[in-house]
Amino acid sequence: MFDCSLATTMGYTAAVLTEHKLTGLCVAVNNVTQPVENWRCGGVPILSMLDAIPTEGFKSTDLVVKSDNVDINGKAF
């Protein structure tokens, strides 16, 4: 049920942002551990998530989303 509610909320938020011509944003939903009526939705500029960091397979000037490697043999995975 949670996944369905979150997906619906994110899709609706994306549609509202697009309807208001707010593009270049990534949907964000906060307070998801609280009841749905307390959720807060909005958009985060995609450029704010990008860095020009050296990453294998990319030129040093390419913008990439910073990520951490996951050890697929680790306990958490």
* Helicity level: 10-25%
Q: Give the structural class.
A: alpha+beta
Report the order of strands and helices: HEEEE
Shape: flat
What's the domain count?
A: 1
Overall average residue pLDDT? 88
Count of helix runs: 1
Provide the β-strand percentage band: 15-25%
Find the count of extended strands (DSSP E, 2+ residues).
4
Query: Tell me about the biggest sheet?
Result: 2 strands, antiparallel
Cα-atom Rg, whole angstroms? Answer: 16 Å
In the sheet with the most strands, the strands line up as 1-2
Low-confidence stretches are: none
Describe this structure in words.
It contains one helix and four strands; from the N terminus they run H-E-E-E-E. It is an alpha+beta fold. It has one domain (2-65). A two-stranded antiparallel ribbon has the order 1-2. A two-stranded antiparallel sheet has the order 3-4. The protein starts with a helix and ends in a 12-residue tail after the last strand. The mean pLDDT is 88.
Keywords summarizing the entry:
77 residues, alpha+beta, two-stranded antiparallel sheet, two-stranded antiparallel ribbon, flat
Write the layout of secondary structure elements.
Layout: H1 2-19, E1 25-30, E2 40-45, E3 50-51, E4 64-65
Summarize the structure.
The protein is α+β, with helices and mostly antiparallel strands and 77 residues long. The chain is built from one helix and four strands.
